[in-house]
Structures are given as structure tokens and as C-alpha cells.
Amino acid sequence: MNTDDIPGESTKHSIWQSLLLHLVPGVLIFIVYFVSASILINRLPSVALLAALSLGIALALIPFELGYLILQGWRKYRSLSLCGIVLYREPIRVWDYVLFVPLLLIWAVFCFAFISPPIEAYLQQTVFAWWPNWLIPSAIDTSTFSTNPTLGLIALASLSFQAIIGPIVEELYFRGYLLPRLSHLKTWAPLINTVLFSLYHFFTPWQNPARILALLPAVYLVQRKRNIYLGIVFHVVLNLMGQGIIAVLSR
């Protein structure tokens, strides 16, 4: 076992620390998302929320989460390296990826495709009935992308930030940094990490039940295998699939 993946007592986080470190970046992302969407909704209505979320990732998620990791590395080691900060990097067999990633994806797709829709519809009509309609993501008309370069660039930025860059940074921060520092909570750590990670998506609160169900097995597996790369591959592929499904359904 890699002893670097076992945080010392001084680096373990209390529940209050975890709450702040999980949710503060989500608040910042939502602020950028809301302000950007408010500005873009009348100018680029078909892709306003898509662009707003990409801006939230670029201007809030990456600077806060990656910046925080770099800052911790500098404070502790006087180095810009994330070694000793981002944990759970123990090697696993290639067959572990081949076996577990598809199984995790099948479960996540099942949750989002079959469990989520009725729950989302109910929550949007009841608990979140007050939520502005223009802040609820809807189908995007991709047929205009080929004739409008601006929309095409927004789609490319969305693919880059929402499906690749954002998920990688999130896994480094949430599973590589925050999850190991909850290890003193043992089997409760993945559940707490997953619930707080889901709540951090303030822009789609109605997805929390399905999102928690979809992601919990992956987070448990990351902790059990002490390997964040499983989480990174799963998260990136899942988001790429989501972007692809949106593109297909929008035609």
C-alpha cells in the first residue's frame, strides 16, 4: 500500500471543512453561470446555458479547484507539484479499467435515462417550481452550428470544458484531494463525498437523486482501489456520452 495515500491526522478534514471545500466552488460556478446566462439568453438563446456553464468551468471551477490544489502543494512542499496533495494514485491492472469502467457507465446511463426523468419532472413541478424556465437546460438546435461559426465555437468549448477539462479537474479535487481526507469516516466517506459533489451542481438541483445513485458506485470503487484514474476515465467518458446524446437528440 502506498503510504502517501493515507493522510495524516493533521490533514484530515472535519465535516465543516468538507462542507466548505465541496460547496464553495459550486457557489462560485453558479454565480458565473447565472450572470453569464442572464447576459447571453437574449443574444444567443439556443446556446446561452451551454456557454454559461462553460464559462463557469473556465472562470470558477478550474481557477478555484486547481488553484487550491496548487496552493496546498506550495504551502506544504514549496513545490507546484501535486504529489502528496492529490492522493489515491496506486496502480491497478488494465483489466480493472476494462471491467469496471463499462459496468459503471451502464449503471450511470441507466440512472440518468430511466430513473432520472420522472424524478426530475416531479421536482421541477413541485420543489423547484419557482426556478426560472430560462435557467432550465433544454434541447439545443445543432443544425445551425454549421452556418453560424459562433455557435460552432461554443459547441467546441462545451465539449472541451464540460466533457474533458472540467471532469479531470473535478476528479483531482473531489476524489484525489477531498475524498482521502474523509478516510477517517471509513465507509461513509464515499457517500458524503458523492452527496456533496452532487449538491455542488447548484445549476441542476433536480438531478441530485439520480446523480447520487449514478456516481456512488464509482466513488466507492475509487476509494477501494485507491485509484483516481478509474474515476477520471469514467467521468470523462460519461460526460462525452452525455454531450453526444444531446447532439443526437437536438438534430
Layout of secondary structure:
Layout: H1 15-40, H2 48-77, H3 94-125, H4 149-178, H5 188-199, H6 208-225, H7 228-249
The gist of it:
By secondary structure, the chain is mostly helical. It has helices spanning 15-40, 48-77, 94-125, 149-178, 188-199, 208-225, 228-249.
Question: What attributes characterize this protein structure?
Answer:
mainly alpha, 251 residues
Written account of the structure:
The chain is an all-alpha fold. It has one domain. It is 68% helix and 0% strand. It is globular and about 45 Å long. The mean pLDDT is 90.
Stretches where pLDDT is under 50 for at least 5 consecutive residues are: none
Tell me the distance between the termini. 50 Å
Task: Kindly provide the radius of gyration, computed on alpha-carbon positions and rounded to a whole number of angstroms.
Answer: 19 Å
Relative helix content: 55-70%
Describe the main β-sheet briefly.
none
State which percent range the strand residues make up.
under 5%
Mean pLDDT: 90
Number of domains: 1
E-strand count = 0
How is the quaternary structure best described?
single chain
* Helical/strand content category: mainly alpha
Shape: globular
- SSE order, as H and E? HHHHHHH
Q: What is the number of helices?
A: 7
